[in-house]
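ok trying this again, last paste got cut off
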Amino acid sequence: MISVPLSGGSPLHPTVTYSVSPLFEAAASLHSLAHTTQTKEHSDWAEELLSGFDSEGILKEWEYFAPIFRETIPDVLDPVQTKEVMFVEDLYGYFVQMPTTSFTKSFLTPEDGREIGNAPPAIYQDARQDAEFVKGRFSLFLSTYWLLFFEEKWEKIAPLFVNEAENIYEAIRTPEGCMAFLQKVAPLFTYREEEQELICDDGTTENVQADQLILCPSYFYDQVRLVKEGLSTYLIYPMKKWKTPR
């Protein structure tokens, strides 16, 4: 269970605040692309994107990395780790400074020793044998994807994040408004009025007090997910999607 004290008065900022990570959103879009179950609009977007990959000569690279995104989004790409990566130029530095051990651990976690077909995908074996090379290869693929495809999509969906930020800051004027907003996006939250604290049932028996709740809306990610980092708790949740012009 996670508790977030709201006794600081209204508005609740910065106890409850907002964050967005373009790099996480790019990774979430690839996670979405790797899934075969898609809405009609998603399917059209995916078909167009794969055609673009083929035209630009990076389809083979996508097929190489797709097994990772089919399982999950690597931890090194979550919004907590990537909150400072706002532009593609930041991405280069992020991967250069990333310890190879962190990269390897993040990439190998989804496999859990399983085999797909007769052998695990090449990405898993390569990450064990030459993680530094795979990290550089992945950085190049991701930066190419961002520049050639995601950047244009990000420009189209960015107004949705601006609108969501306005909704959040309006909601957190009062504890009641904050609770009403959270009930819409993540019903696992409740509010103890007498104690003036938010309570989140995260399914664990451990009682954790967080000084800050950071709301991370996503256009592409379709699950509610909690990430704990120090004294902060990040809530990743899906916005309404597939409504922007293509």
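PB: full thing came through this time. Residues 242-246 have pLDDT under 50 and may be disordered.
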